[in-house]
Amino acid sequence: MNKQFGTRDAAYVAMGAALLALCSWLTVPMTVPFTMQTFAVCLVAALFGARRGLWTVGCWMLLGVLGAPVFSGFRGGFGVLLGTTGGYITGFLFTALIVGVAAERSGRKLPALLVSMALGVLVCYAFGTAWFMAVYAKNSGPIGLGTALGWCVLPYLLPDAVKIALAASLTGRLYPLLFLKTKKQMSS
Question: 145: number of CA atoms within 13 Å, CB side?
Answer without folding.
Answer: 4
